[in-house]
Amino acid sequence: MIKKIDIIITSRLNQIVNQYKILTIFFKFITHTSSGKVYILYAALIPLITIKGYDIVEYGIFAFAFQVPVYLLSKNIIKKRRPTIEHGIKQIIRPPDEYSFPSGHAASSTLFFLIINQNIPTIGIYFSIWMICIFLSRITLGLHYISDVVGGILLGILSFYITDIFFTYYF
After folding, report:
1. Is the full-model pTM beyond 0.85?
2. What are phi and psi of 99, to 5 degrees?
């Protein structure tokens, strides 16, 4: 039942975006703002915009050092296939690998938002909108089912709280 709902909603969102070129362009752009290598750029920029920048980057490095191995392990143990044309879902861009659960983009954008919101809450609202756009981009571009994105969100939250516990007790 959940799989059927997953396919129906994912397929419908994908079809809507396929009808409007401007949405396709927007989601193609936005999804790349949460690619792994871009976070290196973010880490270089954060110390330039706030006095707490180096502390934020240190926290982020630890958080991503936890998240990335858990993400890779989960993806390669679960081995859930990405959405397919058989389910009425067209992949608008090429996926980075063959498995879809959990969404690494959803995990990373959630983690990044939580770190920013905790440390620079005045810009948190902008990053919450960005994060939601990342979630939608992964689904509408035909790269993930909704359940993959939810799994990524949960991984991002878990990574944030594990890091928070670690920093509370050891730093």
Report:
1. yes
2. -105, 155
